[in-house]
Write a structure and sequence with these properties.
Number of helices: 9
Number of strands: 10
Strand content: 15-25%
Helix content: 25-40%
Radius of gyration: 17 Å
Largest sheet: 8 strands, mixed
CATH superfamily: Vaccinia Virus protein VP39
Shape: globular
CATH class: Alpha Beta
Number of domains: 1
Order of helices and strands: EEHHEHEHEHEHEHHEEHE
Strand order of the largest sheet: 5-4-3-6-7-10-8-9
CATH topology: Rossmann fold
Structural class: alpha/beta
Length: 218
């Protein structure tokens, strides 16, 4: 580790690397989440994949990060990186975690693949008082144009799979999510809207945002 990346330490005295050394390598929504997790937080990353966010939080925030991932190969890769990840299904296995076991839960690009996304959100805010949720916005203007002019399910850079091989089974929009959060009584503490890796304003987010990141509080 270079001298430039030193200078901060977590509660245990371990070096915490600078944000610039890891945020550039993260997917844009994960970079937003990583930048807004408090140092030393207990984090559960649901649908963590190979653990990119967990590694960033461990190295850049000194976080105690745990992961739940359904794909066996991804779990093996994450464990090989020294990360604490178990194989499991968010639709079923979140119920096994005790109340308030974590400071924050993360569900990135996974909500739309869940069989019961409403129950998954309820579980997230049971195991932690705050939850980051990111998802692709199916009301983005390119998606609308594809359906309007082509009459076919869209294939875009953010939704690259075809209708028959996509993992996305519950298509949602920014406004759908806002309405659900309000109906369930979840407070939206913060929200970020992204076009590629660039933030955009919230006013036209339902039309212009390709991805959304919400920080919910129960």
């Amino acid at each position: 580790m270079s001298d430039a990346s030193r200078g901060r330490r977590d509660a245990a005295g371990a070096d915490i690397v600078s944000d610039a050394s890891w945020r550039a390598a993260l997917r844009p929504d994960l970079a937003v989440i990583a930048a807004n997790v408090a140092p030393g937080a207990r984090v559960l990353d649901v649908g963590c994949g190979t653990g990119d966010l967990m590694a960033a939080l461990r190295d850049g925030r000194g976080a105690d990060a745990r992961g739940l991932e359904i794909d066996r190969a991804a779990v093996a890769q994450a464990v090989a990186r020294g990360l604490s990840v178990v194989q499991g299904d968010a639709d079923q296995d979140l119920a096994d975690y005790p109340d308030n076991a974590f400071d924050v839960a993360v569900l990135s690009q996974t909500l739309q693949t869940a069989r019961a996304p409403d129950r998954v959100l309820d579980q997230l805010l049971r195991v932690a008082p705050r939850a980051f949720v990111s998802f692709p916005n199916f009301a983005h203007w390119r998606v609308r144009l594809s359906l309007l002019w082509g009459g076919r399910m869209p294939v875009t850079r953010t939704l690259p799979e075809r209708w028959y091989d996509t993992p996305n089974i519950h298509h949602l929009t920014v406004d759908d999510f806002r309405a659900h959060a309000a109906a369930r009584g979840f407070a939206v503490e913060r929200a970020w809207f992204l076009r590629g890796d660039r933030p955009i304003g919230r006013g036209a987010a339902n039309l212009l945002a390709e991805h959304a990141v919400f920080l919910l509080r129960r």
